[in-house]
Write a structure and sequence with these properties.
single chain, 2 strands, 31% helix, elongated
């Protein structure tokens, strides 16, 4: 396994980034007040407090699941599992809602308002979308040859 190395020197934001305050799961709320998780009725997070509609419940049952709420919003189990496979602390594992979400997060971390962003083309379209954010300047570049990653250390 590769040795974990800090990449904080690549970020433009000084200091630590405040983690997103994930909402507690039903199990966590129930444990905090000493009741069964089935007794929790959520009126937040766009979930159905009375459970799913009958047709949705039937479809979920046939799929083998009874989930009616978001799962662990901090992705603690997922981050720990991925971290154990790639030999990284769970805090260094950042799950996202697809590549677009991760590109948006990486851009927000590495690019300050007013910075110029070079977007070699062709490339994944979201790179250009994020570079054209109102707070950034986008520089299109065709046929750019970048040095190998080993020269960037």
């Amino acid at each position: 396994m590769a040795k974990s190395r800090s990449v904080s020197h690549l970020f433009r934001l000084p200091g630590a980034i405040e983690p997103y305050p994930a909402e507690p799961s039903d199990a966590e709320l129930a444990a905090a007040v000493g009741i069964d998780p089935a007794e929790i009725v959520r009126l937040d997070m766009n979930t159905l407090g009375g459970g799913p509609l009958p047709a949705v419940a039937a479809a979920a049952a046939s799929a083998g699941t009874g989930v009616v709420e978001y799962s662990d919003l901090a992705y603690a189990e997922l981050r720990a599992a991925i971290g154990s496979v790639v030999a990284a602390p769970p805090a260094q594992v950042i799950p996202g809602a697809g590549a677009d979400d991760l590109i948006r997060l990486a851009t927000a971390l590495a690019v300050r308002p007013g910075d110029a962003v070079v977007v070699p083309t062709p490339t994944f379209p979201m790179f250009a979308v994020e570079a054209r954010s109102p707070a950034r300047r986008s520089l299109r570049c065709r046929g750019l040859r970048l040095p190998s990653a080993s020269r960037w250390r």
